[in-house]
Amino acid sequence: MNTVITARGVTKRYHDVSAVDSVSFSVRENGIYGLLGRNGAGKTTLMQMVTGQLVASGGELTVFGERPYENAAVLSNICFIKESQRYPDGFKVRHVLDSGRILFPRWDDQLARNLLRDFQLPLGRGVKKLSRGMRSSLGIVIGLASRAPLTLFDEPYLGLDAVARQLFYDRLLADYSEHPRTVLLSTHLIDEVSDLIEHVLLIDRGRILLDEEADTLRGQVLTVTGPSSAIDELTLGAHELYRERMGALARATVRGPLDSSERSRAESLGLDLTTTSLQQLVVSITRSDAQPKETAQ
Ligand SMILES: Nc1ncnc2c1ncn2[C@@H]1O[C@H](COP(=O)(O)OP(=O)(O)OP(=O)(O)O)[C@@H](O)[C@H]1O
């Protein structure tokens, strides 16, 4: 399986801020990756380095096997959709499509036109006259119709209503299944994308905290709640991801599955076991008072 992005110890510093702090991960060809994390976690900075808009302060970053910065061959395979996209004055929706045709070698004009219809975007409307949500829809149309081998969506749906967001997920999945490519999607709407993404990269304060197949996380992460001492007795060992303490009580986030004897032991110790959603997992790992189990003692 080919690797599209390889990061080894990649860092981006702004004076005293490490926006991205020595991260190492890889992104394989043909997968939908969710880049999750709180505000200021480093998601946009990471995407800007991958797309050659920023140079790393340290480490080694390759995209399609080469460094992306000022590398036309690499950049021609990338489409980066971000909320802050600017267009020239007087640009209409049709001009944005014209640019897509020129910029992206695999551009599909028919798909773009179908998506414009789905999202109810008029070809002749000036981009500056589009509503906030309509501008987001336009970004989504470009991102999907580009069919770029590596497509990055950085929180692509500011102002988009629930119907339009669902349309985005549906169209992305449908087109991806016919034309597999690598998609990196940053979002705060974790519940909404939890069935869509195949792999989770969770970044917090510039560091990768979770780099896991979504299937491994879906339904297999459990929350164990009860007296701290009982959780200690359960000796979860390597299963335990995080623990929060609330006086004598604690809540441990646990990577399952637990076998039947572990489950019945948890019950006999008076512990409560519930399945953890991806969103709950992300919240519990990245809450500012959450501590990794190694330091939670
Ligand atoms: N040009 C810059 N100069 C100084 N600090 C910066 C700059 N760009 C980003 N940062 C800092 O780097 C950190 C990461 O920012 P980044 O925009 O990558 O976060 P993010 O995960 O995309 O956040 P959000 O979800 O809010 O968009 C933040 O602390 C931010 O203040």
UniProtKB/TrEMBL annotation:
Electron transport in keyword set: no
Domain of life: Bacteria
SMART domains for this protein: AAA
Protein keywords: ATP-binding, Nucleotide-binding, Transport
CDD domains the UniProt entry points to: ABC_DR_subfamily_A
PANTHER family per the UniProt record, alphabetical: ABC TRANSPORTER ATP-BINDING PROTEIN ALBC-RELATED
Name of this protein: ABC transporter ATP-binding protein
Source organism per UniProt: Rugosimonospora acidiphila
Organism classification: Bacteria, Bacillati, Actinomycetota, Actinomycetes, Micromonosporales
